[in-house]
Write a structure and sequence with these properties.
- The chain is mainly α.
- The protein has one domain: Growth Hormone, Chain: A (Up-down Bundle), CATH 1.20.1250.20.
- The chain is 77% helix and 0% strand.
- The chain has 16 helices and no strands.
- Helix 2 packs parallel to helix 4 and helix 3 packs antiparallel against helix 4.
Amino acid sequence: MTAPPAIPPTEEVDVTPGLPTRLRTFESLYVPRFRWFLGSTLGLGGGMMMQLLVTGYVVFVLTGSYAALGTVALADAASGFLFGPWGGVIADRFPRRRIVQIGLAASALVALIVATVLALDLLVFWHLIFATGLEGAIFSLLFPSRQAMLPEVVGMDRLQNAVALNMGSMSATRLFAPAVGGALLVVVAPQYVYLLIAGCYLFSAAMLLGVPSTNPTASPALEGGARAEFRRALDDMLDGFRYLAANPTIRALILVNLTVVLFSMPYIMILAGYVLDVLQGGPETIGLLQSIAGIGSVAGTLVVASMPSRRRGAVLLLGPFLMGIALIAFTLSTTIWIVAAIMMFISLGQTIRMSMNNVLVHTHVDDAYRGRVMSIQMMQWTLVSLGGFVLGVLASVIGPVQALRGMAIVLLVLVAAVTVLVPRIRNLD
């Protein structure tokens, strides 16, 4: 099965007079279709950031339990494990833009249903478990296609810059979306936040209309009925895992990334409860902290977008090391502004890790397997949710501060071990 060919980097470049031509940091913006793609990223990021905030807030207000936050995260993780690999198969077999647009419309529908149930005052805890699991399935199916679109949009020679700017657009939504969501929770009811989330997803789908759809060069065969087609799809999925097993560089990047994610990102799944319980803040505080953290994300984006293609493996490992140090510092203070400053460094490390890992995977993967490898790469979000479940349970047993600090210490030990024992990663350019 062959994936859509990458769009040559010289096509559709905006040469508007007066635009700077040597500013490497923003070079992908000269490709018009990439600007539409970034507009879609802003809508998607805004919806996701507000959804993470409002769901955590509503769950903790309903239950007062870190274990409940972990259970909701587990529902997301279960969906990711079940549907994530199929997302890669779909990405390598069907037009990627169409898959993403259908998924975004489905996510908007789920948000509208939750808003309706809230407005009718019928919401109970299991509704949120079900809605989170459904959203997890949808995103598991659409994100591999969305990630695999980038080489088609800008070409390979602008890929590092495009990945960083795309991550930056997602990070930029953290500057305003959580603050808007937190303010709405104070002023009006949670259902209005879910309505805004639905609007963000629909906006994201509409912006992709400016990105030409590229059909797979080899369309899936449909002979033999549904059973035969399922077997072919299953073979494609297994072929992706065989490709990963046979490619040591891609295998190392994926495995190290997934392991690091398990101990670096789950804090976000209990952040709402941590703010309400430990920091004694309200919903506006949750939004404020996440928005200030967005400054670190944007800074990380600018660093990666401006970097030359050298020593990228070492920079990749620098990201989680910075996160580990910052997470320990996070647990040592209950002063809101100190915690906010620390969260900027957490987000800086997170953005460096995610951007650099995506760039390196895209650089080394064969185009025919790009969608399937991206689906395995996107399993990191499933592990974030799984780690959130474990962290939520630990926080209920030993306390949130001790649970977060222990996770950060394990992360630092892990990064040190990878740096010493996996030279393939640290030596990558």
